[in-house]
Amino acid sequence: MDGRDVMNHDVKSQVSDEALVARRRAQIVAAATELFSHQGFYRTTIQDVAKKAGVSAGLIYQYVTDKEDVLLLVLLSVLDSYKTEIPAAIAGLTDPLERFWAAIGAYCRVVDQRREATVLAYRSTKSLPDDRRELIKQSEIETNGMIAACLSDCVKAGLMRDVKVELVTYQLVTFAHSWALKHWRLKEVCGLEEYIAEGFDFFAQALLTPKGRRHQAKIHGRT
Amino acid sequence: MDGRDVMNHDVKSQVSDEALVARRRAQIVAAATELFSHQGFYRTTIQDVAKKAGVSAGLIYQYVTDKEDVLLLVLLSVLDSYKTEIPAAIAGLTDPLERFWAAIGAYCRVVDQRREATVLAYRSTKSLPDDRRELIKQSEIETNGMIAACLSDCVKAGLMRDVKVELVTYQLVTFAHSWALKHWRLKEVCGLEEYIAEGFDFFAQALLTPKGRRHQAKIHGRT
Amino acid sequence: MDGRDVMNHDVKSQVSDEALVARRRAQIVAAATELFSHQGFYRTTIQDVAKKAGVSAGLIYQYVTDKEDVLLLVLLSVLDSYKTEIPAAIAGLTDPLERFWAAIGAYCRVVDQRREATVLAYRSTKSLPDDRRELIKQSEIETNGMIAACLSDCVKAGLMRDVKVELVTYQLVTFAHSWALKHWRLKEVCGLEEYIAEGFDFFAQALLTPKGRRHQAKIHGRT
Amino acid sequence: MDGRDVMNHDVKSQVSDEALVARRRAQIVAAATELFSHQGFYRTTIQDVAKKAGVSAGLIYQYVTDKEDVLLLVLLSVLDSYKTEIPAAIAGLTDPLERFWAAIGAYCRVVDQRREATVLAYRSTKSLPDDRRELIKQSEIETNGMIAACLSDCVKAGLMRDVKVELVTYQLVTFAHSWALKHWRLKEVCGLEEYIAEGFDFFAQALLTPKGRRHQAKIHGRT
DNA sequence: GATGAATGAGGCTTCATTCAT
DNA sequence: GATGAATGAAGCCTCATTCAT
């Protein structure tokens, strides 16, 4: 699924030309993401979004049914970044440990790139009605699944301890998200790459088996 | 600082009788906490809060200047739980490792007790104007400080590796918060105590030095 | 059922004081009736109604859920005039023929008093959602029932031909309504009392039996 | 005046080809009539009309200046049915009484054929600005004139009482319209032809002179 | 001639806040 | 101190109308 697709996802439009729909929605989402991130969903008016997007307020309603739909599109676009970037980062890698670190690193970097949108996703999911919120949860579960699979592969290969995969996955995911959520403080403490490196060190300690440690030593230069 | 105190914290009231102010504010905060948690801050009206608190809408404005003040009081009351419960949990303990686990465990349990309010704090802090948000950040930093001190003591005692204290503190704090934030999923995976136990195991692996491990083995039954 | 009652009929209010509710609704209905009659329902804004009623727009929504509810109240108040005036006009009369003419005359006179509102009722009933429209139809059927009963009594007494009561009732009702509906033209032709007299003559010709005619001759001076 | 003509009546078009104009307008009017009848004028959007007519929204504005113009065309098309059908029904008849009944019967049958549009005309005339509403009134007066002439001829021929022609004309017209206006109830009571028959009986009683009655008896089979 | 995307004014409705009682 | 009716500003959304293609 590419970025285009999200823009046609689940939200009905009055306009039929698909390319136009995708373009307009991208325009709207870009403006909305910035505004929602800075002022919050409820403080941002549709007029604000329209003005920032350089279109009229009425136009927005040709591509969206609701103000809430705008939020949904924004959130889906963030989650979609994850689902696009993580697979891209591990594509071509075969070693389980390398794949694991690559996935975590990619996750952190997407979070960094879309930092404000990530925070927005944390704060605003509950502003959606239940059915649309469900879409978001599903997407989150999918992303977690990618991390969990990498973790699980390491366990199966005897490189990591036999931990509760799902719980540790949450630790990993949360670690990545924290970079955005606590950025106001963390940025005083270290930079992104250092944050990632510290995390690697921490999780290596927590998870690797002796065999994993030896393997890690060998591939170390590459990560 | 006790619960009463928060209710007199920083927000001006038109009523002079301090005991009454504290009582009324507690009433308002209790109602608001539940409503904000379930419906969100913006979807909850002052009339809703008044009705649930069993008072008139006008009354609220005698104890608060703003709707935002209500939110501030709610958030401060959550953060205050942390600042009350964690010291209580480690009072009387002297062993650094025991104090550490007790602090983390206490944190997780307060989060569990005030689960929805914790989520609210995550979501709604940005709904506050900058100056009032600053109050919240300060409170969060204080709480973190308590955890960081425990961690630091363990490091100084040679029981834990010389990690970046602040970063790891964030991981610990986030671990506790995650129980609330991801409760919708985690509750399917395990109960609170199991969650805590798994976390202890994880952090023990990640943090303990060989000396720490031996010490841990000795005190194990007690945690 | 008196006028007060209609004002508490079927529409929920946020305000509990019943007397106040009745007073405010009467205020709103009076303003709305005039505006809806002159400009039509859709051309009239709630702000217009509020201004004419001398209240704020927000206030209206404490006594009504919808703009459509305002229309409903207006229509019910018109229909209620019928249901109040016609029984009053025939109360105390026992002769079937006298009752019949008194009912028709009363109907015409109420229509005349509430001429514009009557036209409004004709035009606007379809602007209501189905369930509320049903209320209106019921009320209309009740009024028709009163006329039909008078007619039926005359038939039973052998004073009128054995016509299809319901069809003739519609003609009688429509005759009364026409005074409002076609007033723009009829007022050039005759006055109200002349209109009524001509109608009596017409319906007498159409309906009375020979016995009825003799009876009519006797009571003539009284009608 | 035929149906085509109405479509060129009084409303300016940007398109010059008259045949095309008439065709397009007929298309638009057909769609609008149905929608206005079912949903009302204000609830129907130009987009709705365009979709039902199978054209674009922009197209409509090449054949009409206003949304109100669409309504005007619709109403004129209804009134035009009357002005076409009634003369057709009495053409070739010479006996005044036969002409009278034929006119009334024709009126009722057109009302039945265009039942919803007739109701629409009742409800929506006031949605037009004064000048355009005047056009409608004129058209109504013309139709009434045809009925009044038939009635007047009967009176002159001594077949009917010397009633106020205009008032009775309204009774007759209203009788026909009622079939549409009260159809929701009348259809439970009788069919169209029975309704007409009852009306004939009623008006015969009300209007015929003894001479008229004898004449009526002779022609009875023919009506 | 036809299209349909774009505009933007305007209306309904909500709700934080006030104030007379 | 408490009430709750009243206010009115503000926002979401609709839809008649235009205009570039």
UniProtKB/TrEMBL annotation, chains A, B, C, D:
GO terms for molecular function: DNA-binding transcription factor activity; transcription cis-regulatory region binding. Keywords: DNA-binding, Transcription, Transcription regulation. The keyword Transport does not apply. Residues 45-64 bind DNA. Residues 22-82 form the HTH tetR-type domain. InterPro entries: DNA-bd_HTH_TetR-type_CS, Homeodomain-like_sf, HTH-type_TetR-like_transc_reg, HTH_TetR, KstR2_TetR_C, Tet_transcr_reg_TetR-rel_C_sf. The keyword DNA-binding applies. It holds the Pfam family TetR_C_24. This is TetR family transcriptional regulator. It comes from Paramagnetospirillum kuznetsovii.
